[in-house]
Amino acid sequence: MHETINFGNLFTIPEQVQAFAQSRKTGQIAVLNSKPEASLYLQDGEIVHAELEGRDGLEAAIALINLPDAVTEFRIGIPSPRRTIHMPHVQILCEAARLSDESAARIHVNGAAVPMIGKEEEIKSSRLAGEPMIHVFVHGKEKTYALKPGLVYIGRTSNNDIVVPHPTVSSHHASIERTSQGIILRDLDSRNGTFLRGQRIKECWLGDSDEIAFGEVKALFARPAAAAAA
């Protein structure tokens, strides 16, 4: 008999996936309050199959990840009946987060609505056009930073590339790496977490107009069209 861990609704499915990925677990995340019961299968920490209301594969996995108020249990060692997913879990979580808030057009900073910045507006208005950028909102002020190829460190102390003087930001909070494949956001074991579109993350690919939070500090990633070919 396989061991079962009953989570109830204590942890979201994205939180469970990230935890099981770190420990390279194999098993089944069963969603008990879905009729019929829905399942997300992991093999060595990676999502390999999902089933939800007659759907399976990646579509079902993303729908499960975005399922509100899921009541779950993890069945350790349960093998997947088949493999329908070959995408890394980090990309799946990012895609699910992006789709869950695809229609969002504004973010809120200190209670005030701030428009999301579109590609054309960036290219016309910014002297940094052609480079991917991150806009950081601290104490009601916006600062914009170009992201050059390589690693950029973000944190509260002065030895970071992007200094964010806020009590909820750790000394060395996060990093952003610009690679030839894309741009990766990583949390550096910060106390108050790094979030992408409201989901706490450890590592995630960034897409245009992604909303980020370092602790309680809001930020916006923007990728002008000219940088897409970089």
Structural features, described:
The protein is of the alpha+beta class and 230 residues long. It is built from four helices and 19 strands. The strands form four sheets. The protein has a six-stranded antiparallel sheet. Helix 2 crosses helix 3.
Helix-and-strand structural type: alpha+beta
Q: What is the C-alpha radius of gyration, as a whole number of Å?
A: 19 Å
Biggest β-sheet description: 6 strands, antiparallel
Strand content: 35-45%
Counting DSSP E segments of at least 2 residues, the number of strands comes to 19
Order of helices and strands: EHEEEEHEHEEHEEEEEEEEEEE
Strand order of the largest sheet: 1-6-2-3-4-5
Keywords:
230 residues; 17% helix; 6-stranded antiparallel sheet; 19 strands; 4 helices
Write the layout of secondary structure elements.
Blueprint: E1 4-8, H1 13-22, E2 27-31, E3 38-43, E4 46-52, E5 55-56, H2 57-65, E6 72-76, H3 89-100, E7 106-109, E8 112-115, H4 119-125, E9 133-138, E10 141-146, E11 150-155, E12 162-163, E13 174-178, E14 183-187, E15 194-196, E16 199-201, E17 203-205, E18 211-214, E19 217-222
Parallel strand pairs: 11-12
Antiparallel strand pairs: 1-6, 2-3, 2-6, 3-4, 4-5, 7-8, 9-10, 9-19, 11-13, 13-14, 14-17, 15-16, 15-18, 18-19
Kindly summarize this structure in a few lines.
The protein is of the alpha+beta class and 230 residues long.
